[in-house]
Amino acid sequence: MLYVVIGFLFFAIVLYFLLGGADFGAGIIELFTSDDNKSRTRHTSYQAIGPIWEANHMWLIIAIVILFVGFPVIYSEICTYLHIPLLIMLMGVTARGTAFSFRNYDAVKDDKMQNLYNHIFVYSSFITPLFLGITAGSVISRQVDPAADSFLTAFVFSWLNWFSVAVGFFTVALCGFLAAIYLIGEAKEQFDVKRFTKKAVIMNAAAVGFGGLVFLAAEVENVHLAHWIFGNPVSLTAVIAASVSLVLLWYLLSKGKTKVIRILAGFQVTMILVSVGYRHFPNVMMVKGGNNLSLLTNHAPAATINDLGWALLVGSLFILPALGYLYYSFQKKKEA
Question: What transmembrane ranges does the database entry give (predicted)?
Answer without folding.
Answer: 6-32, 53-75, 81-99, 120-140, 160-184, 196-218, 230-253, 260-278, 308-328
